[in-house]
Amino acid sequence: YGKNTIKFLRLHREGKKHFVKEVEVCTHLRLTSAQEYLDGNNSLVIPTDTIKNIVLVLAKKNGIPTLEQFAIDICKHFMTTFCQVAYVKTYVQEVPWQRLHENGVPHVHSFICVPDGIRFCEAEQCRNGPLVVFAGIKDLKLMKTTQSGFEGFYKNEHTTLPERKDRILCGELFCKWSYGECKDFDFDCIWNKIRECILEAFSGPPDCGEYSPSYQKTVNSIQMLILSKVSQVQVIDVVLNNTFYNVVDMKNLGLTNDKEVLVPVEAPYGSCTCTLGRK
Predict the structure, then answer these.
(1) In angstroms, rounded to a whole number, what is the distance separating the alpha carbons of residues 174 and 140?
(2) Which of 97, 173, 184, 196 shows the greatest Cβ crowding within 10 Å of its Cβ?
(3) Same domain, residue pair 146 and 269
(4) pLDDT tens digits for 105-158?
(5) Number of structural domains found in the chain
């Protein structure tokens, strides 16, 4: 059991310059006994309101140096404070605030919310076991307007999809990776590097791009690049939810539409999922 959707803004001041972290936290516990379920005995139950208050107090006392470190702090607190806790798991998700810049100058206390992917992390620990950390990015919307196709697929009497040598590749990406046992990592640096790998593998070189024969191959290319460049990552999950676009037929309007006006297919949509790890 636990407390979901603990939302708050942590403001840190260094003179005139301000720093913000707005997060959503979910913390779940498993106790050493199930007596509250079996017998209605609540003597070991830590109320969810208490869980919420602990999260807020830790944010006040420790700040949020990184999402991962904050999740680690929460897990360690419950493990060291409550002997009846057998397992704790914490999920932390960040609102993507970025510092405003005016004529290239960073503003001291103004920010803009830029929805270019949401950062999140998880930390979990069993009593007498290692503290394990996961991190990721979700709701990252990506598109390239060429250098993508889909040909040579299996066909039978139910196949109506035409082969395409040149199509728009568009999707919403979810990526989650495991660090294994918690170590003294620079979590911010690693997260930014992985995000760069995702963008690089999806798009290819900036002057010419790179051909994608399928969504599946693109997902694998993202995972392989991350594993080759980021040694701290042990296992990586990627989900790419596809958005398809159809070319509008403008013949009745007396126009030729050479893939210049397209409409998104609302539903159903496709999805590719893959888990890849080191040997």
Answers:
(1) 7
(2) 173
(3) yes
(4) 999 999 999 989 999 999 999 999 999 999 999 999 999 999 999 999 999 999
(5) 2
